[in-house]
Target: Large ribosomal subunit protein uL3c
Amino acid sequence: MKHNKNIGRTIVSIGLLGNKIGMTQIFDESGNIIPVTILKVGPCMITQIKTESKDGYNAIQVGYSNTSNKSLTQSELGHLQKSNIQPLKYLKEFRVPNVDDFEVGQVLNVDLLSVDQLVNIKGKTVGKGFSGLQKRHNFTRGPMTHGSKNHRAPGSIGMGTTPGRVLPGKKMAGQLGNKLTTIKKLKVIQLNSEENILIIKGSVPGKPGNLLSITPSN
Model:
């Protein structure tokens, strides 16, 4: 597998995949405490290249995390074996303006990022199960005294005769968390290319071990 190092900064636009390790704090040169999140990023591999002439748009598909053949379906295995690539657990597509600098099998790692660079990190938030209106949407509760029986109840959820139904999008009780979200403009504090470790200022979505997508911030 080839790894072309002379492709410039444009390759960073396709992004990288990684896992959250956890949070800690470090001290800068002035002795200030910086809250940071430690990420295990890459190495990722380009598994497919889509072109505007063939697919209607330019994109790069990136694979991450080696796995066994039994963990993938036959179609997933065939897709990777067609390019002579080992089984990978995660695949993600990134749009790019030009695909001339990329090739299938190319390895991408944390070296593509730099210290003090701003990145956007996308991942699933912590799932908190079924939650009521006060916790999920910050509704105020009803009176707790004077015979009130509406403490944490939803109250009216719509009109009766017209329209005679609950309108879509009504804020009600339901699952809290476990949704994709993006934290933008997080600063890269340190990186370790030997261990594929990336240290980001601030917090990122999800629990330790959560799958994350790291892309440069525009």
